[in-house]
Amino acid sequence: MQEITGFIPSTSTPYSEFKAHLGEEVTVKGTIHNIREMSDFAFILLRTARDLIQCVYSPEFSDFRLSPEIAEQSAAKITGKVVTSETRDGSERYELQIHNIELLSVPADIPPVVISKKQINCDLSVNLDYRPVTLRNPKERAIFKIQEGIQRGFREYLQSQNFTEIHSPKINFAGAEGGTNVFKLDYFGKTVYLAQSPQLYKQALVPVYERVFEIAPVFRAEHHDTSRHLNEYISMDFEMGFIDSFTDIMNMETGCLKHIMNLLKTEYAPEIELLKVNVPEITSIPCIRFKDAKELCVKKLKNITDMKDFEPEEEAFLGKWAKQQYNSDFLFVTHYLSKKRPFYTMDDPEDPEVTLSFDLLFRGIEITSGGQRIHDYNMQVEKMKKLGMNPDEFETYLMLHKYGAPPHGGLGLGLERLTMHLLGFKNVRYAAMFPRDINRVSP
């Protein structure tokens, strides 16, 4: 009788181990990425989970012969001898002299987009229409390997700071942020909403765990079609209790970003090199109050009409200003107007017209919103009423305040926006694996 032990023996040698097997025969599994046939030999690039391995065919190496069945995008098991070869720049690499190819599957058709080139040469709409295919291109998949590293760094750092990972529901009785930009659902005859944010739940868990975080999708029913917005995106959130000031939250994010960037440079170096990523150096992040930042914008830019928030060109200007003044790719803008912040944001006791809140700009685009929350029951009820909200509709949320909550605060960081600007993309859809916007719900 067969027994399952949980051990999976390795049947494919990763490229990272080729050096140890120099001169030996190994077997590698992967997808045939590209075939270049010459008169008496051929180069076959095998795409594995993270590498492109050059394999060389020649009748001199073995009795094996190439056949027409061996086509690009075939899954294959290639056995051969590990040897060294010289690249164009004179460096040494390892390759495989093919002894045998066993096909594991063959494609039924030719891909609609050429993916064996260095990069995908097609419109964004075509790229997204054929996403299951275009993601196979090494540069396209490298985007999301780096995105994995961002999430991994976020998780690692917060766990090292005694945060507990949580998973909040995505079907809610009300929107967390207020307003009309919520997706409504028919839930067994009741109207419910897709989560705009895990905000209300992560606050509820502060008295339980003190520090919590979540990496999960959120949904915004906003009728925009811009290069920086999605209707579904991944939000990396954390909430922390027993803070002394909302600057504690900014310090936590700064430490987290330092860890993320260092992790990318070390653990994701192949992808960083492939995409030529300019990974920022972070020692500290400068801060400026919203009022002062607005004054800078008014002096330098024309036709500014909204004095309560920033336009994209203002954020871009502030990004350049931070780089010139502080050599920083990041800038915290603090003390936003109370009118522009959610109902749970704490007003500044010294100036109730502004809040103990902040946004983080990265190279001229907002990637984070955060701040200190109201933890006093009477204060929260009073602010709800002031904003025309009915506290009775938030009975379960107000349990947090009614039965005691410590001073706390947190933030939400947009994964796709951070990835977009880190990699220098002009459109956030390049940084979403399967983006959802007002025009796209497939593939």
Tell me briefly what this model is.
This protein has helices at residues 124-129, 131-134, 138-160, 199-204, 206-209, 247-267, 269-274, 290-300, 312-326, 377-386, 395-402, 415-422, and strands at residues 25-37, 42-47, 52-57, 75-86, 92-105, 164-165, 171-172, 184-187, 190-194, 211-219, 232-241, 287-289, 330-334, 347-348, 351-355, 357-362, 365-372, 408-414. The chain is an alpha+beta fold.
What this model shows, in words?
This protein has 443 residues and is α+β, with helices and mostly antiparallel strands. Helix content is 28%, strand content 27%. The chain has helices spanning 124-129, 131-134, 138-160, 199-204, 206-209, 247-267, 269-274, 290-300, 312-326, 377-386, 395-402, 415-422, and strands at residues 25-37, 42-47, 52-57, 75-86, 92-105, 164-165, 171-172, 184-187, 190-194, 211-219, 232-241, 287-289, 330-334, 347-348, 351-355, 357-362, 365-372, 408-414. The strands form four sheets. Strands 6-10-11-18-17-16-13-12 form an eight-stranded mixed beta sheet. Strand 1 (25-37) and strand 2 (42-47) form a beta hairpin.
List the helices and strands and how they pair.
Layout: E1 25-37, E2 42-47, E3 52-57, E4 75-86, E5 92-105, H1 124-129, H2 131-134, H3 138-160, E6 164-165, E7 171-172, E8 184-187, E9 190-194, H4 199-204, H5 206-209, E10 211-219, E11 232-241, H6 247-267, H7 269-274, E12 287-289, H8 290-300, H9 312-326, E13 330-334, E14 347-348, E15 351-355, E16 357-362, E17 365-372, H10 377-386, H11 395-402, E18 408-414, H12 415-422
Helix pairs in contact: 3-6, 10-11
